[in-house]
Fold this protein.
Amino acid sequence: MTATSAAPATGRAAAPRRPAARTNLAGTAALLRFALRRDRLRLSAWVLGLWLTTLASADSVHTVYPTAADRAAIAQGSAGPAILAMSGPARYLADYTWGAMLGHRLLGLLAVLAGLLSILTVTRHTRAEEESGRAELLRSAAVGRHAPLAAALATAAVADLALGVLLAAGLPALGIPGLTAAGSALFGAATALAGLLFAAVAAVTVQLSAHARTASGLALAVLGGAYALRAAGDAGSGALSWASPIGWLQRSYPFVDDRWWPLLPALALTAATATAGFALSSRRDHGAGLRAARPGPAGGSPALGTPFGLALRLHRGLLGGFAVALLLVGAMYGSLLGDADSMLGNVDRIREALDRLGGHTLADSYAALTMLVVAVVGGVHAVLATLRPRVEESAGRAVPVLATGVSRSAWLGGHLAAALLGSTAVLLAAGVGFGLAGAISSGDGGAFLRLTGAALAFAPAQWVTVGFAAAVYGWLPRATPLAWLVPGYAFVIGYLGPLLDLPAGLERLSPYGQVPRLPAAAMDWTPPAVLTLVAAALIVLALAGFRRRDID
Amino acid sequence: MTKAITLSGLRKTFGRTTALDGLDLTVETGEVHGFLGPNGSGKSTTIRVLLGLLRADGGSARMLGKDPWHDAVELHRRLAYVPGDVELWPNLTGGEAIDLLSRLRGRLDRRRRDELIERFDLDPTKKGRSYSKGNRQKVAIVAALASDAELLLLDEPTSGLDPLMEVVFQDVVRQAKQEGRTVLLSSHILDEVEKLGDRVSIIRHGRVVQSGTLTELRHLTRTTVEARTLRPVAGLDAMTGVHGLHTEGDLVRFSVDGAQLDAAVRLLSAAGLRALLSHPPTLEELMLRHYGDELAANGHRLDGEALR
């Protein structure tokens, strides 16, 4: 009979009937404020990071290529399919002003990164919340059916638009001739629109799968596909680029032609995709995907009953996705191999640039250059796979396993073995794709083994990436985003290094920069041996840290 | 009897939060030991130290004669653990998770596993993500009890189970006790501990504030007495150890400390007893005694009435 003073029940009159759209979106503003509050550091870091990198790049090209002759030279050097596949359409090269360089080299990259930011943001605030059960709590409040998705899209939009506005305002302020206000506005708008478009793509994929990881994986596959299409198009005839929205945005030619109309189809596609996301969302149950779950085996196979077996099972999806993606990317680059000689041969400047790599043929040099890109993309898998134990630990799934007869070393070791083998397998897939397509397009059967070997030469670099991520996880589990430094650095240096004329030493700081550039250069066994030792040392360090610390 | 678990002066802090503040706990081999305390009192931290997942900042811990931190793996082969909040792999079925955990612990006893799955009415073919909270809990309980572990660490194992399954769970724990296994049962469900526990430790703010058999604990605490007397009872209000005295005509109701019970009943008897009703303290009352000040501070009434 404890006398507690219950809060007086609030009797409220029935809310007046409102149009369905209003109620479906009830609470969106509150959710948006909440999401921005949660993500204030994350989004600011992304937006400011991308903005400052762009401004710094603009400033560097201005310093590095002061004269028209310098710019003409780099334009000539950029005309090869490898560079075009990594940057943008050749139209920018006609008059390679500082502005044209930005549009050519950075717009595609910014589109991908803004898309990545949007995909991660939308998934994080929709499916990941649903999967964790937190969304249910929110939905039980006066929050409309569409409010979480609308708020997530709005959160991504705030970040994308902020980046667009900052670019539009910041670039002209640098005072670099040719970086006009109109061009900068278009540049910023195209970047923001890429972000919005892939936010809309994620709005669809989070409806399809009940798992946040699958949902973001699907959206990233669309992003990767769009990038690969434009890369193949820009390196070839250009027709394929029109199948890719990133290709459309690059064809707005900011600072060159300043044409706004290619943004219109992208805008229409964004609106249509987002609408599809909302439509699909009302066709499914909360927490469910569009496909019903099927029953699985009633018992576990003995193969599952070891730490390594469990790790393999948990890494399977990620590994399969990356292996297929890199097989395709490798094949895309490989299919251009046959044309490399004819396309590049005419350009003296490229011949010089590629000669520095030491290739016997231009095709070899082209393969060596693009293989690095493929390997760094594989590094994304290496980090994701290595951080899988962190995901398990945060989700509370590590403790039940560690409470059995599995030692900490065996548990983490199982995951690391899966990451090491997986990252090697991903390289092998890329090499096979590159090798097959390369052998067919160049009509040289021997190219298959050479190119597969060139891809596998990056394996020790991949292991260092695994080792670094593991060491961060072992000692500083809360600082695991630091693991992205290795592929991130290699990516930025590999992408912007040649354009910004950065010292070669900077590239060699990355494990990927240490790998002999096969098939252009000769094999040198010392760097892979050293990298392998470094990786082994990092893994020993990781296990030592993991044995010492508290488990969350 | 030998000790299955001995903790003395155990300390653990997380930043500025003190989770364990000199905790002492002894669990005898073969007993079911109730580990009682509200949310956030340090029960799970204690169990995580026992599992070697957390390293204690001070004090000593022995379990099955070993050190929980250094001999974690060896100990884990001899124990089974059920967390209060079971997380399963979304893409593994419940059956796969049970087999995985059993195999990682050692040997899989398929007959026992199948029997438990049937008793708990669990569908092992569903994927982890489609289980309800109660069903996830069943997966962990089956995986733990299917083993031949000599020590069971159960951290609020029945949270989310329906009453029918709680009965099954209690049967299974009793059976484990008969087989001579030791059980540390952390809970805030008093009824469960009262039914299963041989001994009970009450934890508060990271310390064990009381430990003993239920009989011992009851002796230490108040008995509620309700009596009708011919004449008004004299002297009760002046007596130390009498709480929440309430008189209504010939009816007198109060609670009295164990040590004063005899004296209080003598006074009643002197006043001419017509009816006497007394009952020993329930575990709930034991808990309230230790946490009463907190509730009182929050504005909840805690006189004799509140203690029933």
User: Anything to note?
Assistant: Confidence is low (pLDDT under 50) at residues 303-308 of chain B. Chain B touches chain A through 52 residues (CB under 8 Å). The radius of gyration of chain B is 23 Å.
